[in-house]
Structures are given as structure tokens and as C-alpha cells.
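Supplementary notes (optional reading)

For those who missed the lab, this is the record we used. Protein: TERF1-interacting nuclear factor 2 N-terminal domain-containing protein. Length: 78 residues.
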Amino acid sequence: PGTPILQTVAPLVRLLSAALWKVMKQRDVMQYGVLEKFVTSACETVPGMLTFRHQGKLTLGLRGRVILLTQPCYLLSI
């Protein structure tokens, strides 16, 4: 059955994961910062969940999408 703390935390993690999956599925770029924070926090909490390289690629990709889709004129002015 698990420890009381896990029984309390597990449903919250599932709910948050489902919400963030929806962000990804809908490509809600304005929420990618929240997703990046969750990935970073989860990787710090559960070492080995992602390799350092995969975590870096994921967070860099999220940041890149935010920049590309929220500041498209920036690339044209370079």
C-alpha cells in the first residue's frame, strides 16, 4: 500500500503530470516555462530520471521554442 506521504504526494504528482502533458499536447508555449521548471525539479528530486544530456536538451528545446514563438522579430533583426 505504501507510506502515508507517498499516498498523499502521488495523486498530486499525477495531476501535475497530466496538466503538463496537456500543455505539451496543445503546444501551449506560454506554459513551457512551468514545464521546464517541473522537469528540472523532478530531475533534482529523482536522480537518474533523465540523463544530464537529455535534461539539458529538453530544457534548451523548451526555451528555444518560447523564444522562437514569442519573439519572432528577434531573429529577423540579427
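If you only remember one thing from this example: The longest helix spans residues 4-26.
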